[in-house]
Design goal:
- This protein is mainly alpha-helical.
- The chain folds into 2 domains: 49 residues, Arc Repressor Mutant, subunit A, CATH 1.10.10; 148 residues, Tetracycline Repressor, domain 2.
- The longest helix has 27 residues.
- It comes from Catenulispora acidiphila (strain DSM 44928 / JCM 14897 / NBRC 102108 / NRRL B-24433 / ID139908).
- InterPro entries: Homeodomain-like_sf, HTH-type_TetR-like_transc_reg, HTH_TetR.
- Keywords: DNA-binding, Transcription, Transcription regulation.
- GO terms for molecular function: DNA-binding transcription factor activity; transcription cis-regulatory region binding.
Length: 246
Amino acid sequence: METGPEDAEPGTLDPQSDPQSDPQSDPQSDPQSDPQSDPPQLGLRERKKQRTRIAIHEAAMTLFAERGYDHVTMAEIARAADVAPATVFTHYASKEDLVYELRHVANERLRVALRTRASEVGVLAAVKEWQQDMYEYYVQSPKQIDRSRTFSRLIRENPTLWSRSVGFMFERQNLLTELLVEQHPQADPFLLEVAAAQIAGAVQAAQVRYQGDLAAGMAKDEVLARATARSEQVYEQLARGLAEVL
């Protein structure tokens, strides 16, 4: 399953836009910024829908943190967000979608990172920089750290959520395959697909360790330092293995 700009959540990057011109492209740009904050170009109606979506998501994550994923219903989320149950389902088809609200942010940023990389920047270097940026993005403010810790605990405690996270690895693999084939038209498509699988698997493995550190309550600086050290190991190994392909 692949995602495109039409599937992106509110607040994600437009792959045709300049990532440097978007305040969300810099995790350090605003310590209080939210990945779902209102884009200024939206009209009044769209901004209202955006605020409703944010309220629903924040209510859900608060309830999940307090009571656990399995002990919260969509109706209870609606009450906590002060909206009708039908409104919740307008924005989110399931509780799983509420938990994985930010997956499109990550995938769209990956798409932008690979499509806008300078000619002298290799694929692996671009993916490595993207992953490091996402690590920082998830802990850019105290509110975001709390949200990321809750997310990390939820997926580690719930088999259904864990299974879906593995599914997202294949979603990212498909995205990487699409981008690699697009950028390396002379290469063997099958070998590019294999390369995409290796990169997606490595990203997932590093992400699981990062989430484990968050779930364990490690301080932000320690979480980032450990993630950076792992990135060096991961991408050095990938570079050796993919030297003849990328």
